[in-house]
Structure formats: C-alpha cells, structure tokens
Amino acid sequence: MKKRVVVAMSGGVDSSVAAALLQRKGFEVIGMTMCFSLPDSSRKRPNCCGLSGIEDARRVAHKLGLRHYVVPMQKQLDESVIRDFCQEYLSGRTPNPCVRCNQFLKFDILLKKALFLGAEYLATGHYARITRAKNIFQLKKAKDLNKDQSYFLYRLNQDQLKRILFPLGDYTKSQVRDLARKFALPVSEKPGSQDVCFIPDSDYHKFLKSRLGRKIKPGPVKDTNGGIIGRHKGIAYYTIGQRGGLGIARGYPVYVTAISQKDNSITVGKREDALKSEFLLRDVSFINKPAKNKIAPQVRIRYNHKEQRAEASCLKGSITVRFKEPQFAITPGQSAVLYDEDKVLGGGIIDYILE
Q1: Which one of 37, 113, 133, 308 is most buried, counting C-beta atoms within 10 A?
Q2: Catalytic-role residue among 49, 98, 101, 314
Q3: Does 48 qualify as catalytic in the annotation?
Q4: For position 70, which CATH number holds?
C-alpha cells in the first residue's frame, strides 16, 4: 500500500510543487489548507492564507487529483500567534510570528490532524532538510541558502521530525518554479507571498493600532546619555536598529538602540551604539538533547542575519550567548538560532541584552 502523506497547501508555488513531487514519488497525497479567514492583500504579493490562497490550493489539488481539506484555524491563530505578537510589541519587543505559527499551528495542530487521517507524514513547502544519523533526526539548511528557512523551524523536536517531510530541501527556488511549469500547475507564475499573513498590506502600525488602541502611548525619546530629545508615538511602533521614521535631527544618522517598557521610552544613538555582544535566551529548545555547559556554535539573531561565531553557555533552560565580534541590532523578542555549520542545534527567544 502507498504511504499516506498530508501536504500543508497554502496555494503557493512551493507547497504545490511539494505535493506534486510526493505524488510522483508514489505517496498517497492529501492536501490540507489552514483557513484563517484573512482578507487578501490589495498589493501584488499575495498573503499565504487568504481566501484566494485557499482557492488556489483547491485548484492545484483538483489538477493533481488529490483529496483536499480546509481546516478552520482562526481561533488558534489569534490565541497562539496574534495575541503574543501584539503583546510583545506593546512591551517594546519585536516578535517573530512565523516561528510561533510553525510551533503551535503547522507542526502541532496540523500534524495531529494528519496523523488522525492515517497519514505517516506531514509535508510542507519549507526550504530545509531533514537527515537521519544513528536514529537521530537532524534539521539542516536547505540547498538554496538564499531561501533557507531552517531559522523558523528550530523548535522542532525528534518526535515531530520523524513525521515531517520537506520535499524542497534539495531544490533551488528557480528549480521549483521550473517544476511548477513542467507539472502545469495553475499557480506556476504566482508571485511569492509576503512575510506576515495576518497583516495583508504590511502596515504594522495600522494593525497594532486596531488591536491595541489606547494601550499604545507616546513617550520620551532619549539620547545615549539619558537626555530627552524628542517624543515617540508609542514603543510598539519601533524596533532595535530602526533608522527611519524617528523624526529626530542630530546632524548624523540615528538608530534606535534601546526600548524600555519601564518608562515607555526609546533611546537613539549612532550606529555603533547599537552594536552589542552578549545576550540571554529564554524559551530554549533543542533539536535533540539540550547542550551542556559551553559550546561554540554559529548564531543567527534574525532571519536575514548571517550567523556569526559565538560562545554559548547553557544552564537550566536558558542560554547566554556572547559573539566573538559585536553585532548590530540584537533585538529582544526575536529568535536566536544556534548552528553547527549547516545543522540546526536549537535556539530560543532573545530576552535581554547583557552587554
């Protein structure tokens, strides 16, 4: 009998090609699409979970002759992702909702639904690879380093990895696009989706204001000596390393170097003032066994950051990371992911800066 796999189909090129590849490898493929009842973007770049995305996933499933299910998950998105997103910004932190979506929705709820349907695996269109060595599953970077999404997947564990497939891990994005054309998929020319699906037009300020309203309060802008040099519109609207939109003239470029919920202030300074070396991680997660004592990984502090050499001290659920060289805009709320070359070790949420 064919092995059954559920493919998380967003209606985009990547997940559609993932489904087609698995079908051609002999799997019994079932399509499953999360429904968040989100409005579609008015811009050219679609959001991955809008109503048009669901329709595109249905069209691809029909083309491939697959069973296709739509799973309502509006409540789960709000409870596990959006509320945290808003609270973190209100606290002066910069969250990564894609990490939480993977953790609580795709590879928890959706994986359980796949297993309930008798599937052996859940597959997605992520650009990452899973290998196995001595009965230990390892999460690795994708072949296409420009599209690698292993950063967003560091919270996966052994029980999950043995039930997950990433069919695109050994392909480049251009190869995937060519495959979509070869398979005559109706989404072959569809542009890539935007980053955050529940903010369809990428207007963070408008979204946060609609959710938080009067909880967002103006406050002081300080220089690095503590002097007040202006007013900000609310710490939820700013992030460490931000340069534009500050309304502060100092005769040189200024950047946000610190955000304080305690006194509702932001601090600005020169770019070098935003260079830091040491920070603490909370909510730590490892792919396999937790690291002990000190290790020397490469560490990535945001998705578009090139990981750098560091020393990590691992103690009782937290990790202290110290870079060999200071890095720009280490940002509380973002994930820091630890790598051993192309292998993901684990990571956590940046809690606060030590130095």
Answers
A1: 113
A2: 101
A3: no
A4: 3.40.50.620
